[in-house]
Amino acid sequence: MKFSIKNILKNMESSKKDLLRGSSWILFGNLFSKILVFCATIAVTHILTKDLYGQLGIIRSTVQMFIAVSSFGIGATATKYIAEYRNKDARYAIRVYWIATLFITTMAVIAVGLLLFFSRYIANSMLHAPEIVNNLRVGAFILFFSLMNGAQSGALSGFEDFKHLSFSNILNGILEITFLPLGAYLWGLPGAVLGFGSCFLLVFIYNTYHVNKNFKCTGINIFSIIKKIKLTDFSILYKFSFPIALSSWLILVMYWVSKTMIVKDADFTSMANYDVAEQFKAQLMFIPGILSQVLLPILTNRTAEKQSNEAKSMIWMNIRINIIITFSIFLIILLFGKYILMIYGKEYTNVFPLYVLCFCAVIDSISNSYVPVIISSNKVWNVLVFNLTWGIILFSVYTFCRTMLVPENALAIAYLSAALVQMTLMTIYLKKRNWYK
User: Cβ neighbours of residue 172 under 8 Å, at least 6 residues apart?
Assistant: First the structure.
C-alpha cells in the first residue's frame, strides 16, 4: 500500500479522525493565541516593575480561585451532556445547557459580590498588600465573564464545534496582546488588570452568538424548552457538576493558599519568579489541554454509541502524543532555561522553578489524559479523591520545604511531589478497571 497521509487517514478509525480533526482546529487557535499571550506577558514584564508584575500574578491567581469555586463544573457538564444527547435527544441537551447557564449566571453574580465584599480583607489580612484592593475589585469584572465563557466553551465543545472554539481562542489572544500591554503602559497595574478583563467581555459576545447558532441548527424552539424547566431538572448539578466543582475548588484553593504563603514568607518578587515559571508550564500544557478538551466530547459520544474499542485506542493515542510533545519541549527548556529567563529581564535569574514546573507538565499531561476517561464513565467522585490527595501532598510538602528553600523553589518541589503521586494513583486505578488497553 502506498504510504501517504491520505491512506493513513483513510484507514484510521473514525474516532481518531475526529480527535485529530478537532485537535487540529483547537491547536491552530490555541497556538496562535498562546504566542500572542506569551508576547503580551513579556511586554508587561518590561512595562511593570518586578514587584508590580508579582502583584498582577497574585491578582490573577485570586480571580482564578474564585472562578474555580464558582464555576461548579458547568463547562464539563455542558460538554458531556450535549455530546451524549445532541444526536439521540436534542431537547434534553438544550435543557441541560440552559439549566447550566441559569445556574452559572446566578453563581457569577454571587461570586462577583463576594470578591467585591472580601477584596479589602484579602488584600490587607491575607496578602498584606492594601495597595491592590482596588485592583482586586476590577478583577470581579474578569470573574463574571470568565465564568460565563466557561459554560459557553463547554457547549461549543459538546457540539464538537472546534472551529469556532478555535477562533474564540484566536480572538482572545489578539485582544490580550492589544489591551494588556496598552493598559499597563497607560495606567500601570490597574490598566493591566482592566485590559486583561476586557478580553473576556468580547470573547463572551462571540461565544454567545455561536452557541445560539448551534442550537438553532437543531430546529427546536429553544424558548419552549426553557419555559418547561422545573426545579427537579437541576438535580443534574449535584449528581455530576458538584463533584467536578469540588475537585476544582480543592486544587485552586490549595494552590492559591500556597502562593499567598510565598508572599508572606518573602515578597512579590518571589511570586514573580514563580509566576514566570508557571507561565511556561502553561505553555507546555496547551497541547495536552487541547487533546483533553477534544477527547471528552468525542469519548462521551463514542461511549454512548457503544464504540468502546475505538474509545480505548483513542485514549492511548492521546497519552502518547502528550508525552512526546511535553517531554521534547521540556528538554529544550532544560538546555536553554537561563537564556529563556533573560527575555523577562536581568532580575529573573532563578531557573529552578522553571525546570521543575516544566517537568511537571510531562506528568500532568498524563493525568489530564486520564480525567476525561473517568468523567465520561460517570465516575466523577473519583476525580475528587485524586485531587484531594494532590492538594494534601502539595500543602504538606510545601510546609515542610519552606523552612529549607526559598519559597518559590519550595512550592515547585511541592507541586512536583503532588503531581507524581496523583499520576501514579490514577494509573493504578485505571489499570485495575481495565479502562484502557
Answer: 33, 37, 199, 203
